[in-house]
Amino acid sequence: MRLFPSRKPRVRISTISKDFPSIEQVDWYFREKASPHDIHTGIAQLLATNRDKALMHLRVLAKTGTDKTRMVALETLKSAGEDLPIKVLMALTNSENKYTHWRSIDLLGDLGIKKAIPIFMKALSSSDPLVRASAASGLDKLGVNMSLYQGKNMDPTFTRPKGKIVPRVVQEKTHQSTTLLGGRFYNKVLIKGKRTQAHPEGYTAEKLSVWLRALGHDWKNAGWSYNPVEPILQKPNGKYRYYPNKDGTYRVSVGVIKGQNAGSYLLTKNSQRNKAFVTDQIHRITQELAKIGINYAHPKPENFIVQPRLFGRPRVYVIDFDYVWEFKKSKESKK
Asked: What is the pLDDT of residues 115-149, one digit of tens each?
């Protein structure tokens, strides 16, 4: 006999049945093996019969039901505009039920709960791609850009160092070297193309000129209300901040675009209309670059940043000018 038996949450079916006698399948909807779809169907019937009593039961189900029932109850309460019990939601991230595990992390990301950052960090190593994408999205929305800073944003000695020294670290797994800056420049400035032992080449004069041409393009006349190209920082006199390496290549000071990786954005919970808009923008930006003679050879979603806005459609920016070339004119076109 166990001294401290585990307490399993119980759905109070008998109480719900008394308040909703006209719904014969209440017990069926909330049984142990019910799918999330079945539970949603049952809750929808409760709400349609008596919304106030249904919401009252949902508050109880969110704390006493099975993991799936608690999760669906929390989803419904959120859509009804009610405040959610964050402790309950965070506890559900440990659920063995795959749906509950994924949706709890997804919902925490939507709510922007800073206390959930360690949960998101742990979820990044999950075998479930939906869980990983939701965790990355949640971190992005909290300003914790994992794909860029690779965990350094969780290190206070990097983000808030003592003294005036600016911490620097070279980002791993990139074609061109990217130097991440901490302290007062954290999440504001990057240095790209600096020569290192692992990355001995910077930006060639050709690639830099292509990047500058893209920046200087008349995007407003082409239909954009902003410049969708990764920004190169400028000096007070207006000149761009790029500097030659010893081998004749260049390193460039770049402004950080605060937003979400488009690959992650398209996988996580966002409106289908906005997803379609982002996909279209990726295509349009690539096509516009081609019109001005620029071959952007890696137009994958991971090379675009989505910047949400309170009003209107999100903004999409193209980044990483590592693989760009000028389109060479044919002999016929020269004639």
From this structure: 888 888 788 778 888 888 788 778 777 766 656 77
Taking only the tens place, the pLDDT of each residue in 78-92 is 988 888 888 889 999
Task: List b or e across 163-195, with b for residues whose CB sees 16 or more CB atoms inside 10 angstroms.
Answer: eeeebeeebeeeebbbbbbbbebbbebbbbbbe
Say if CB 116 and CB 108 are below 8 A apart: yes
- Is residue 306 within 8 Å of residue 278, measured between CB atoms? yes
Helix (H/G/I), strand (E/B), else coil: 289: helix
**How far apart, in Å, do the first and last CA atoms of the chain sit?**
93
**Residue 261: how many CB atoms within 10 A of its CB?**
23
Encoded tokens for 163: 């003294």
Give residues with Cβ within 8 angstroms of 14, minimum separation 6.
none
Protein fold of 86-144: Leucine-rich Repeat Variant (1.25.10)
Q: At what angle do helices 67-79 and 36-49 cross, to 10 degrees?
A: 50
Question: Apex CA 139: angle with CA 134 and CA 146, to 5°?
Answer: 105
Name the pTM for this structure.
0.61
Joined together, the tokens standing for residue 306 give 């989505």
CA 143, 270, 300, 280 dihedral sign is negative
Contact indicator for 303, 319 with CB cutoff of 8 Å: yes
Distances (CA, A) of 73 to 26, 104, 105, 124, 166: 15, 12, 15, 26, 47
Q: What is the pLDDT of residues 228-275, one digit of tens each?
A: 999 999 999 999 999 998 888 899 999 998 888 888 788 776 788 889
d(CA 170, CA 211): 22
* Domain range list for the chain: 1-84, 86-144, 149-326
